[in-house]
Amino acid sequence: MSKRITIKQIAAALHVSISTVSKALNDSYEISEETKKKIQDYAKEHKYKPNTLALSLQNKKTKTIGILLPNILTYYYARVLRGIEEVTTEKGYNIITCITNESYKKEVDTMEMLSNGTIDGFIACISEETLKIGNFDHFKNILEDGTPIVLYDRVHAEINCDKVVTDNIKSAYKATRFLMRSECKNIALISTSEGLDIGKFRVDGYLKALRKYDVIPNEDLIIRYNDEENLKDAINKMLDENKVDGIFTIDEISGAITTQVLNKRNIKIPQEISIIGFTNGILSRYSTPPLTSVNRFAHTTGKVAAKRLIDKIEEKIPFDDIVTEIIKTKLVERDSTKKMFIKF
Amino acid sequence: MSKRITIKQIAAALHVSISTVSKALNDSYEISEETKKKIQDYAKEHKYKPNTLALSLQNKKTKTIGILLPNILTYYYARVLRGIEEVTTEKGYNIITCITNESYKKEVDTMEMLSNGTIDGFIACISEETLKIGNFDHFKNILEDGTPIVLYDRVHAEINCDKVVTDNIKSAYKATRFLMRSECKNIALISTSEGLDIGKFRVDGYLKALRKYDVIPNEDLIIRYNDEENLKDAINKMLDENKVDGIFTIDEISGAITTQVLNKRNIKIPQEISIIGFTNGILSRYSTPPLTSVNRFAHTTGKVAAKRLIDKIEEKIPFDDIVTEIIKTKLVERDSTKKMFIKF
DNA sequence: AATCTTTTAGAAAACGTTATAGTAATAAAT
DNA sequence: ATTTATTACTATAACGTTTTCTAAAAGATT
Fold first, then answer.
1. What local confidence, expressed as pLDDT, does residue B171 receive?
2. What are phi and psi of B268, to 5 degrees?
């Protein structure tokens, strides 16, 4: 237990002033080579490390970014984090990661807590509860203080800042169209009942594709669920009562559960029913059969968000130059859809 | 862009000294009710928030903990993080999360960077590369400085600090025994070839169980792999050349891949071959069939580690009171193993 | 009226650092 | 011989806060 040494202690030990030490350690021309060497050697020997806190207080920059994740157990967010992390590390920034766990209070508290000089900016995804409540004052206040924020994935028009989002409508449109082109006539949709815009956009994309090809949407084929147990029952019921030959699931878990249900009913995928999932994570990759999925570039999303924020922090971009970056998706074809195509 | 207000500005605005403001805001008895109210009102009105950096510099405590994750994409670590996060939040600590991505250099750099007053302690899982290289000086140095560390999951005897680990040998032993009790005679093992102790322990447990019940281990039934593609081939080869009726996989991905291979070969799980996986994450839960798995309590691991560290930081436990907590596992029975049992 | 307490406030030091301004002593230029 | 530069260093303020010590005024006690 030797505790870190400070500049002051070095100064005392070598009978020089603290300014001399500071300058010597920063290799200033004002200090003679001889003295510099003496000080630097001593510092090295005693493993001197400048106190980051003191530096930050001086510079008014902490080189730290606050990250808000709604949920770390969702593979997608873990991958976004990874993307962020890659860029921040490269640029010499630390990140403080906070998981809001979809709670409004946790989100407000966290941002409150960090916006006191601890961080230079935020990268955040709005929690489900916050979106439901519709109060975004905590974001607005922070922006007003001059702290930059980049929102990703789940955003809101009321918050006037940079955003990085997935191309939800178009992706859902394309996935649905893909199913139709591969001979599916009766395409079901599995969605969550939660009122997230993201979900709505994906439903919109699905409906848009149906309409485009003159298919009348059938409400019986659209399932909106709250919890997983309900979902299995709902799918079974739907399959009992309807002819279905294609299913588009709006998130990864839905895709996994749907696959389990079909397998249990011994329905051949994709011969009898095709499935396309959203978000291409490990579940899609490792399920039986591996699922054709809308691949979202989580990693890219993280990187783009981090780059944008750091540019803002370092004032390479003016504070009120606001953009929304749209990250395209890509349909990854695997074994849960048919290979034959109808050309429209 | 109004930028945060400081004590100094309040003092100037109200024509009092900064000490008066500080005391008023801390509700000191030394300040008259009248002055206090005036100052507090002003502070509230201007949304005054104390600068955390300045406070930390004063108190020599940052209320921040550094977390090292080898890899965030592994569901297990994400869950550990969640456990840590829960405790730290409750106790008013922030966490700085860093992903070493299994790199020695990244691990050293990160710890170096954070151990300059930024954090009060570390919760870390040693990276694969570090374990391979076998140099733990960065941990030792930090401990010497009087900064507490709690290691979780992957630990090393050379590092003398608190540890929280999974009961690997026993868990593997029990899983293997479970397979034997459910009539499996030829039990294969899927392991990674990387030289992690954790893997070794699990293999040891497997071997121990076999020996205990007088089964002679068959090297042909033990697969050690590096990359996923190899693994599929290796499993197929093994199944071609050997009679196998049970498989114990040492991690979640191996379990998922094994399941895919068996499904592709149309082998009935568990009627023809039973599978038990290690680490009970989403893959095990959502695969077809859902896998019987050794459930590791990632969440508990995180919580225990965080509690221990905070107790150390707050000096409720002396610095050199070192313990290793062993987190038990629990076999979760699902559909990949048979229900019938032989009692030994 | 003189002294002692209490109340209220402010000054100054401290946390660890950097940056600016200043001060010697010596060397160079006039 | 005097002024000017140069070299090598030190003092001080600053970042935003808390804390300890000091001081003045008001009130209480004799």
1. 96
2. -80, 125
Mean pLDDT of B56-66: 94
User: Which two tokens mark B66?
Assistant: 């550094």
Higher pLDDT, A55 or A3: A55
Under the banding of pLDDT at 50, 70 and 90, the label for residue B6 is: very high
Q: Is the CB of B61 under 7 A from strand D?
A: no
Distance in Å from C15's C1' to A30's CA comes to 27
CB-CB neighbours of A227 under 10 Å: 8
CB A71 within 8 Å of CB A107: no
Measure CA of the first residue to CA of the last residue in chain A; give whole Å.
74
Tell whether omega for the bond before A148 is within 30 degrees of 0, i.e. cis.
Answer: no
Residues lying close to strand D (Cβ under 7 A), chosen from 12-31 of chain B, are 18-19, 22-23, 25-26, 30
B61: nearest CA partner in chain A: A53
Domain parsing of chain A, residue ranges: 7-50, 58-165+298-327, 168-296
Q: Are B294 and B145 in contact (CB under 8 A)?
A: no
- In 3D space, the residue among A68, A306, A321 whose CA is nearest the CA of residue A164 turns out to be A306
Partners of residue B224 on adjacent β-strands: B191
Note whether B118 contacts A256, CB cutoff 8 Å: no
Least confident of A125-139, B67-81, B287-301: B67-81
The C1' atom of D10 and the CA atom of A13 lie apart, in whole Å, by 16
Q: Which residue has the tokens 């695969």?
A: B287
Architecture of domain B59-166+298-327: 3-Layer(aba) Sandwich (3.40)
Name the average pLDDT for chain A.
Answer: 93
| Superfamily of structural domain A58-165+298-327 | Response regulator (3.40.50.2300)
Choose the closest CB to A54 out of B57, B257, B263.
B57
Contact A56 B53 (CB under 8 A): yes
CA distance B88 to chain A (A): 11
In chain B, residues with a C-beta closer than 8 Å to the C-beta of A121 are none
Q: Which CATH superfamily is domain B168-296 in?
A: Response regulator (3.40.50.2300)
- Distance in angstroms (rounded) separating the CA atoms of residues B61 and B118: 9
In this structure, are residues B334 and B288 in contact, taking their beta carbons and an 8 Å threshold?
Answer: no
How many other C-beta atoms are found inside a 10 Å radius of the C-beta of residue B341? 11
On the question of a common fold for A58-165+298-327 and A168-296, the answer reads yes
For A20-33, b/e burial (b = at least 16 CB within 10 A) is: bbbbbbeeeeebee
Contact of B155 with B99, CB cutoff 8 Å: no
Structure confidence at residue A257 as a pLDDT band (50, 70, 90):
very high
Gap between the Cα atoms of A303 and A311, Å rounded? 12
Residue showing tokens 């870190």: A4
